[in-house]
UniProtKB/TrEMBL annotation:
Residues 3-158 form the S-Me-THD N-terminal domain. Pfam families: S-Me-THD_C, S-Me-THD_N. Residues 161-349 form the S-Me-THD-like C-terminal domain. This is DUF917 domain-containing protein.
Amino acid sequence: MEAIEHISYGASVLASGGGGDPYIGKIMAQQAIQQHGPIRLLDSEAFQPHELLLSTGMIGSPTVMVEKIPNGEESIVACQCMEKHLGRTIAGIYPIEAGGINSLLPLATACRLGLPVVDVDGMGRAFPEFQMTTFYLDGINVSTFIIADEKLNTVLVDAIDSHQAEKFARAVTVKMGGAAIFAASPISPTQARNSGIKGTISFMRHIGKRMEQARAARENLVDTLVGLLRGHVLFRGKAIRVNQHSEDGFTRGIAIFTGVDENVGGRFEVLFQNEYLLAKQEEIPLCITPDLIILLDEDTGLPVLAERLSYGMRVVVIGAPADDKWRTSRGIEVCGPGYFNYPDDYKPVEMLAMAPKGAI
């Protein structure tokens, strides 16, 4: 159970504000362990080349999911539908992204199905759309997508590529009330090993464990997390306006902060679509997708997810580099600022953080 707590914390950090509320997934995983026993965590190398690995999780607006809590049967039914559709048996479950409920729900599903969890994911963080995976970067079509709602209605999407699958699956999710559960992205162990981001669950657990140690030892929590992520403190601020709404199966919005402490007098903005995607001071970018933007409650050390942002919150904002696969020209094309119609060109967070004000 302690490991689940650590993973939950690490998932909230790497979620970059999105991925859905990890508390829901944590409770579901803990209940599954109580009923079915411990979860096995395996490397992709532990599977035979012909075996089938599958991801499960939540699709839709995290804001909706706060009130539309899954009952636990959706992912089981979706996995069974996938096995029937493919005519194959699932050998392992993996998270499609590192973030929130989408890191914890796969653990609960695997435990209930008596399957191991694969220590890999397709993002290394959380992104708002499902074609934004390292599998898609490598041209692997993992479009088969099954969506299930709380009434156990299911819809199967089998598109020509993952980008088209995202569009259709998102439209179905809106019709299902704005949030649903999926089983998707069937891959082989070889594809997981070559194209996935390995060790994600282990890293989330390490983040959670190390931060717990830092808290017990009264170490500086921000410095500890910055060190773990090779990150940079972007600013400290108080939320003076938060505009967010659910649209097309996403939580979209902008948060505006006034600077505090060493940043007094500054005005900062964080833009998000499920995940935090752009942080800037006035018109100067501080961190740009695909790099991670993490809002941390400095007193508690707890990450603040986008759907939990509210007026008056005091946060420290951290920028951290994304996995190197996202910093390629193809990675920037798929999930960089141009895709989200932001006017800024991508520059690594370490370059932006070290540049004199107004130099970039």
